[in-house]
What we know:
CATH class of the domain at 2-179: Mainly Beta
Mean pLDDT: 78
Low-confidence stretches: 5-27, 189-198
Number of helices: 2
Number of strands: 11
Order of helices and strands: HEEEEEEEEEEEH
Protein name: Peptidase
CATH architecture of the domain at 2-179: Sandwich
Helix content: 10-25%
Largest sheet: 6 strands, mixed
Signal peptide: 1-25
Keywords: Membrane, Signal, Transmembrane, Transmembrane helix
Transmembrane segments: 236-257
Distance between the termini: 112 Å
Radius of gyration: 38 Å
CATH topology of the domain at 2-179: Jelly Rolls
Amino acid sequence: MRIRWATAAALIAAGVALTPGTALAAPTPTPSPGAVTVTRAGTSYLTATPVAAGQPVRVAASTGEHLYWSFPAAAGEVHEITAAVTLAQNRNGRSTWTVEVFDGLRRRQACTAGAQTPTADAAARTVGISCTMRRVRPWAEPWSGDPLPGTYYVRLAVVDVPEPDLGLPIDVDLLVSTTDDAGSSADDGRLEAALVPPTNAGTVLDAEPTVAPEGDGDDGWDLSLTGWLPEAGSRWIWTTGGGMLAAVAGVVGFALTRRPATR
């Protein structure tokens, strides 16, 4: 396993000549020491094979299959998915490969860096795919689609290939790694500068404002009823008239429904 990762990195370091549109395996992060290699892959979200960060994946598959893996993500982490696909010989044409990341709600997550959809020529033997996710946030608005803590799914597949090449054997080396979140601020951070500078500043008061003197003999008590009762208006008229009509209607209704006294 380590020999294959070292071989892919050595090809890039040696400066192998590539034709336009050809993509070889890019240098990948080193797997965690002592991590057990995963040799399985799922074919759907429900059967996705769980992997941990730094755990290498080595799978033999066929061209045209959709391979699924899942991994956990916590707030503040930035994950990078790298894959090296070893292609079969004597292929009939170019092929385009892709790696996609989905969250627990099956929402496709954007990649901020990496060759997410490279194309390999017919003569290429290896194609490198990578995707660097956005930083996982502790919270986000429902409409934003930002990555949140939880389980994420990785899907690797070929999106454009000649029909005669479907079913040819391939070898997939995949690794999910956690990188440092350098240069990004936390959600609870503070702004270094105002978002919008003030464009209409107020005037400076040179003199102190004067306070109106209080009236003599005013001890704070007001015994008059003018301040307690509301002013007369149409609301009082309608309220009084409605109350009188309700009283008359009650008396008339009682007189009509009252039974005569019997002896």
